[in-house]
Fold:
Amino acid sequence: MVCDRSGTSKAQKSSKKVDYKAQLNAKKIDDGTCMVTTMVSEHTHEIDPAFSQLMPAHRQLWVKLMRQLEANDIAGLRSCKNVRLCEVQCGGPQNLGCLTKDYRNYIEERRRLRLGEGDAEAIQQMFTRLQLKDPNFFYLMDIDFVGRLRNVLWIHPRSRATYEEFHDVVSFDTTYLVNKYKN
Structure:
């Protein structure tokens, strides 16, 4: 572990990096414990605990706020207003738990992952065309009771042939979206 200001910067402009050797090194021993091998605690800059929330290791988006951000975004609230609303509800930007850019990045990421109107139908039409071209193309689409796309499985004919030859399967697990539509 090292201080986030350690090392040197190759940039011509100013940098927060300063050249010093503050670090903590440890190694894992056979019995599963760790042993400290090197400890250098000399800092050439002030350490202010108030700024710890700005360090990447300490920044965390709260689940409650992430849900609110996404709901507000779906409702049409602009990103800057959405983040500002969270700041006001938390008592100021210092109480967010991370930087406002982290929340803006989260909103943009969720937008990229969200299916738009007609996307599920477009996927089904494409799979139908592929199946008409090649009867060995297989697909299943799982749609919930509200009509939202939950799961998609497709097997390309080349993948089937490869499986017959090598008996290996490549699977993409997208369970990171599991809680997206939970009430």
The mean pLDDT is 78.
